[in-house]
Amino acid sequence: MSESDLHKGRIVTGLDIGTTKICVVAAEVVSNTRLRIIGFGQAPSEGLNRGVVTNINAAVESITQAVEECQLKSGIEIDRVYAGIAGHHIQGMNRDGVVAVRGDTITESDIQRVIEAARACNFPDKEILHTLCQEYIVDGQDGVKSPIGMAGKRLEAKVHIILGSVTSAANIIQCCHNAGLHVQNIVLEPLASSLAVLEEEEKELGVILIDIGGGTSDMVIYKNGSIVHTSVLPIGGHQVTNDIAIGLRTTKQEALRVKHEFGIGMENRVTPGETFSIKGIAGRSDRIIDKKLLAQVVEARFREIYELILEDIDQSGFAPSCGAGVVLTGGSSLMRGVDELAEEVLQMPVRIGRPIHIEGLDELVSSPIYATSVGLVKYGAENDMSTTFSKDGNPEHIFSDVLTNMKKSIKSFFDFF
Question: 155 lies in which domain range?
């Protein structure tokens, strides 16, 4: 029986725990390259701030609401999920490992030893979420993707390690458990988004994925098909909403409505004389606002976000390797003009990234809003992890589970890009 036959018919569920919304997507594995979306659910996010849980009970209620909606639409019971993780606590780094080959040819044991050598680092209160192998070097020959069976005496590995706060991961798992869900794995959200929206040729040519969410702006850089840089900036769509509320002297709720209905990312795209109405506060009369004023506020904040991203890209040193330019995704990428502003600031071609290569309810989850949740499903379909975090109501036990099971799962499985 082939690997695709073993996975065929399996149901995979992704849980995107965002600052603005909770998204759940369920899919059936049709083959090793095809997914059929069978249900999705969404709920306003409560109890989270910039990707970090701040109120467990409120977060559990939001997760439960989204899961119940997905169950209703799909007709299946959901008890296992691949959960996303983000936040400013995320840290990525490139590491090298080197070992002597024990036999005449390279074996799986040699691969495990060289990966462990590359992973050998000590960061208090951090845990390795992903070990992404970039390439192997056999006796000085670089660019090797699969060295098993090759002759050689010296084996080197270049990997990208993604670290996250153990406490943040434990709180996400606790929320899922309280909602009646087993966590099959915790996945970095921008990694998941990249699986959903990027083409393979973009990864090979070199591409920058920017996922602008409500609380954070996440970035991953691919070079030669592998992730070489990750970062999370603690600024996103919520800051745009706050700026609109302050600049137009209105409530955050009204500012959010105005942003969605009239927001535009570049002032020069506004036709002179265009206006809109905002509701008055506490019985005051509605006011007429010039769209140029709104565009000025929005453009100023997005320009700041892109300038911070540009500084990060320049510091990474990978800008010259990104021939495919930038792919912009996340809910904030839907605003008119934000892609043009990104091209102006970043000086690279930019496209909007939407989930690709999916079937079923693809018309409902083809928006950049669902990039992360669809990517979590794709990750789960490609990486059939046997380890799940045990359900337990004791926070201390779950905290220990995060340490133990993450180490076990990473030792038995590696992501290859």
Answer: 91-163+407-416
